[in-house]
């Protein structure tokens, strides 16, 4: 299945966020119908936060467990903490249970152990994964210049999460990270890649036209036998 077939452009971010919100809501409802609960991996960063706020207003007849696709190794009350942003966006939504993948103090080694334990406790496929993308082509915290990128991308590695240091460090969030690996992210019933703005669109168009080996987003879009991957773009 080519992700091209599923790339959708929207007139504006509001429409994109509504469509992605609808898709996540449907994924949760199907999962709850089938298994009594839904299991999600959700991007941090700024782009998808309104989707989460919309999902938080939906009444679900069951539980949703979710974790961040990646986390910055900072204390949980730090403004750059993805979990903090997710908690704020979901507010006190009764259905939602958010699982941290870092320790409250942001310690890297202890956080990696926590992420691995959390993923080992819940080995099932995600019902949906929502990914953002950086203008450098990173997804989750799989960064193009990281020394251990290959470990994060390797299919069948059996590694669910890794600690990594982006190189160069992004100035807006210059921290070590914990990230789910590509093979763990791919264990999903559906994946939504949410991208806004012209700069990121140019990156996407380039990788869809001609794959750029070293870019993590390319690894996602070129993965063999992936689950359905839907690309959503708006200005
Ligand atoms: O560092 C991160 O960046 C990406 C993209 O974030 P955005 O603010 O440009 O939407 C995000 O998907 C990832 O979870 C985050 O940790």
Automatic annotation (TrEMBL):
Associated pathway: Carbohydrate degradation; pentose phosphate pathway; D-ribulose 5-phosphate from D-glucose 6-phosphate (oxidative stage): step 2/3
Catalytic activities: 6-phospho-D-glucono-1,5-lactone + H2O = 6-phospho-D-gluconate + H(+)
Enzyme class: hydrolase
UniProt entry keywords in alphabetical sequence: Hydrolase
Keyword Phosphoprotein appears in the UniProt entry: no
The enzyme's E.C. designation: 3.1.1.31
GO MF annotation list: 6-phosphogluconolactonase activity
Alphabetical list of Pfam families matching this protein: Glucosamine_iso
Organism superkingdom: Bacteria
Domain Glucosamine/galactosamine-6-phosphate isomerase residues, every copy: 12-220
GO BP, one annotated term: pentose-phosphate shunt
Family: Belongs to the glucosamine/galactosamine-6-phosphate isomerase family. 6-phosphogluconolactonase subfamily.
Free-text function comment from the UniProt entry: Hydrolysis of 6-phosphogluconolactone to 6-phosphogluconate.
Name of the protein: 6-phosphogluconolactonase
Organism lineage: Bacteria, Pseudomonadati, Pseudomonadota, Gammaproteobacteria, Lysobacterales
Gene: pgl
């Amino acid at each position: 299945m080519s992700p091209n077939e599923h790339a959708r452009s929207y007139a504006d971010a509001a429409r994109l966020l509504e469509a992605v919100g609808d898709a996540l809501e449907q994924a949760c409802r199907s999962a709850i119908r089938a298994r009594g609960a839904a299991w999600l991996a959700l991007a941090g960063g700024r782009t998808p936060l309104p989707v989460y706020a919309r999902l938080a207003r939906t009444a679900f007849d069951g539980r949703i467990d979710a974790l961040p696709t990646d986390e910055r190794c900072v204390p949980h009350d730090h403004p750059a903490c993805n979990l903090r942003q997710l908690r704020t966006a979901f507010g006190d939504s009764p259905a939602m249970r958010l699982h941290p993948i870092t320790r409250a103090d942001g310690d890297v080694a202890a956080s990696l152990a926590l992420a691995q334990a959390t993923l080992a406790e819940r080995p099932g496929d995600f019902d949906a994964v929502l990914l953002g993308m950086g203008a450098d082509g990173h997804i989750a915290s799989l960064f193009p210049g990281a020394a251990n990128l290959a470990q994060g991308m390797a299919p069948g590695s059996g590694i669910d999460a890794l600690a990594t240091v982006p190189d160069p460090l992004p100035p807006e969030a210059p921290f070590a990270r914990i990230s789910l690996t590509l093979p763990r992210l791919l264990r999903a019933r559906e994946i939504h890649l949410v991208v806004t703005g012209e700069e990121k669109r140019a990156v996407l168009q380039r990788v869809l036209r001609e794959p750029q080996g070293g870019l993590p987003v390319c690894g996602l879009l070129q993965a063999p036998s992936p689950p359905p991957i839907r690309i959503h773009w708006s200005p």
